[in-house]
């Protein structure tokens, strides 16, 4: 990467774009809504069950002008979801300013392991044990989505729920490879702890991106 490109990436004017696509939001609070997804490359959180490990190495994904991404999104819908990888590895200020200038809603899904940036209409925080969120990020969360891979993850979910604001929506989501076993445990847990809701990866059941 030459110096000029690196400077643009550092400012968030360009982003290492892995893919962009129009689909139905499959998880969490906005499940079932049409949205334009921007998947940004780069992640060092290292979840062993991650289903997009090809996103981890940012160098594999070409720096793309944010203006072009926004122009593409405008053709489809009024809601853009920024995901990864770990999108907060990059400054999101330029991108979200552009989205809002174009009357597009800005949503993010992040582990929260990097400093907060951007202006978000919806902030989905999905903490991971391998690299915890920064304290500054918890207060921003509109939605806390906890992935349940084993029984100990319920305790971790409660620890994280204690740190977000009182209006944050709380979701438990079974990790896909353990969905049969974990879903039944989550159902029982939510019935005993109704502050939580269940999130499923409905896009995988529907066989869509």
TrEMBL record:
Its cofactor is S-adenosyl-L-methionine; [4Fe-4S] cluster; Mg(2+). It is an enzyme of class 4 (lyase). It catalyses: 6-carboxy-5,6,7,8-tetrahydropterin + H(+) = 7-carboxy-7-carbaguanine + NH4(+). PROSITE patterns: RADICAL_SAM. [4Fe-4S] cluster binds at residues 43, 47, 50. Its EC number is 4.3.99.3. Substrate binds at residues 24-26, 39, 83, 209. SUPFAM superfamilies: Radical SAM enzymes (SSF102114). Keywords: 4Fe-4S, Iron, Iron-sulfur, Lyase, Magnesium, Metal-binding, Queuosine biosynthesis, S-adenosyl-L-methionine. S-adenosyl-L-methionine binds at residues 49-51, 85, 126-128. Signal peptide: none annotated. Binds 1 S-adenosyl-L-methionine per subunit. Residues 30-209 form the Radical SAM core domain. InterPro entries: 7-CO-7-deazaguanine_synth-like, Aldolase_TIM, rSAM, rSAM_sf. It holds the Pfam family Radical_SAM. Pathway: Purine metabolism; 7-cyano-7-deazaguanine biosynthesis. Catalyzes the complex heterocyclic radical-mediated conversion of 6-carboxy-5,6,7,8-tetrahydropterin (CPH4) to 7-carboxy-7-deazaguanine (CDG), a step common to the biosynthetic pathways of all 7-deazapurine-containing compounds. Belongs to the radical SAM superfamily. 7-carboxy-7-deazaguanine synthase family. Homodimer. HAMAP family: QueE (MF_00917). This is 7-carboxy-7-deazaguanine synthase. It comes from Polaribacter marinivivus. The gene is queE.
